[in-house]
Design brief:
four-stranded antiparallel sheet; Rossmann fold; 25% strand; binds 5'-O-[hydroxy(phenylacetyl)phosphoryl]adenosine; GMP Synthetase, Chain A, domain 3; globular; nine-stranded mixed sheet; 2 domains
């Protein structure tokens, strides 16, 4: 399979649109004839496959949501017969039934190819040794990254999550040059490497992190701590897994693998497409999937899109770093707040470590917000006044970012939980009845 968008002389946007249009028509036909649920959904709005002739007809198609996957649990949206499904992944989610996805052999090949493109974009080659420290199992992170690293020709070390000390030992002994894991886990790995005095004993030069919202400041902090290049990789199991999009050396948005996944940004309120550059909900239509093709899948991820050519020369659309998911958004005293706003504010300050927890309660019908922040050890040996000053300063910075007063509790390094998978930054104890 050609890695066409890797070359600097890649497809023009017009050529890409023609390809996308053709693939869309084919995918809609395939879905209509192979998935009863979609056939009925299309018939309910009087839509026949022939009504979709090119990209301009996209907005005639109905949306798909996570509820559609749950309602058809486990295999109701599969378009290929079980005999052609070679792998299943599932995400448990915190509420409701698991969402289950299936892949044909070709889907797995395309997935590996997409991860290879992403890794190549990050500078990984067959000369690299890459530790995959995403969880292996039903989560798409581990196996998705694994097949991509192998397909790139690099050497994969399938660490999975859990044993940080062993991971660092192997990193040193094997001369590991690349790592794939969640950014919060990499931060924990970095702290352990530094604490062990091992920074000069490792050869790590590239990290490809994703699976959770994180800030540009955190990416830069990881680069500085580990003296490497760090990249942002995005994906979701419903659409494929890691590798749907990835940033390049310019870090000006994540390039979408647009020949396989057609992106749209819509308003979550009106459900209408919104102009490029404006923040809205990201929606994907798969263009080449066989196992579980999805039409206009609402990801709930909030971003904006830029279809201008990147400084790196790639013409594929770029989506901006994610602000968060619409369902991560906290409504605190009527104000919409994303944990990432608090993270960005904390990372502006010196003396704070990028570990925090937001605890929300409701007392006498009023939301109370406590932000627990780890700060450097030295503040605890200094005068109490210094601690109070820092606490007030952090409170002011957060208030400036979210417009709300919060209680700040400073805690010593390593007090808060560390995560080797997706990090949890919010404990919401409010009961809504
Ligand atoms: O997290 C797939 C993945 C694995 C992506 C490894 C990247 C690396 P799910 O468990 O289905 O799949 O979760 C998908 O995670 O809708 C986003 O909300 C969030 N997410 C994934 N990557 C990023 C990222 C995997 N780079 C959900 N930035 C998505 C922000 C991300 N959020």
């Amino acid at each position: 399979m050609a890695v066409w968008n890797e070359a600097k002389e890649c497809m023009s946007r017009d050529e890409l649109s023609v390809l996308q249009g053709k693939r869309l028509v084919k995918q809609v036909n395939y879905v209509y004839h192979n998935v009863e649920y979609y056939r009925k959904k299309m018939q309910a709005v009087g839509l026949e496959p022939g009504d979709i002739r090119d990209l301009s007809d996209l907005d005639k198609l109905p949306y798909t949501t996570k509820d559609d996957l749950r309602d058809t649990y486990p295999f109701g949206l599969f378009a290929a017969p079980q005999s052609e499904i070679v792998r299943i992944h599932a995400s448990s989610g915190t509420t409701g039934k698991a969402t289950v996805v299936g892949y044909t052999r070709r889907d797995i090949d395309i997935w590996s190819e997409c991860v290879t493109r992403a890794l190549t974009q990050c500078g990984i080659t067959s000369n690299d040794i890459v530790q995959v420290a995403y969880g292996y199992g039903l989560f798409t992170g581990g196996l998705g990254a694994h097949y991509g690293v192998e397909n790139t020709g690099a050497t994969v070390v399938p660490m999975s999550t859990g044993n940080t000390k062993k991971l660092i030992t192997m990193m040193k002994d094997f001369g590991v040059t690349g790592i794939m894991c969640t950014p919060s886990y990499l931060l924990h790995i970095a702290e352990t490497i530094i604490e062990q005095g091992d920074l000069d004993n490792i050869k790590l030069r590239v990290a490809v992190c994703g699976a959770e919202p994180w800030t540009e400041k955190m990416r830069i902090q990881i680069e500085e701590k580990l003296r490497l290049k760090c990249f942002d990789i995005y994906g979701l199991s419903e659409i494929m897994g890691p590798g749907v999009a990835c940033d390049c050396e310019y870090h000006k948005g994540l390039h979408v693998q647009e020949d396989h996944f057609l992106p749209e940004i819509i308003s979550a309120e009106t459900l209408k497409p919104i102009p490029d550059g404006e923040v809205g909900e990201l929606v994907f239509t798969t263009l080449t999937k066989e196992g579980i093709p999805l039409l206009r899948y609402r990801t709930k991820d909030l971003t904006s899109i830029d279809r201008t050519t990147c400084e790196c020369g790639r013409t594929t659309a770029r989506i901006a770093r994610f602000k968060g998911r619409s369902d991560d958004m906290l409504v605190l005293r009527g104000v919409n707040v994303f944990p990432s706003q608090i993270e960005a504010a904390l990372l502006e300050m010196s003396g704070t470590l990028p570990h925090y927890m937001i605890i929300v309660d409701r007392v006498n019908n009023l939301d109370t917000i406590e932000v627990q922040v780890e700060v450097e050890e030295r503040f605890f040996s200094d005068e109490i006044r210094e601690l109070e000053r820092l606490s007030k300063q952090i409170g002011d910075v957060i208030k400036g970012a979210i417009g709300l007063a919060v209680k700040v509790k400073l805690v010593e390094p390593k007090t808060l939980n560390r995560f080797d998978g997706k990090a949890v930054h919010v404990i919401d104890n409010r009961v809504f009845d």
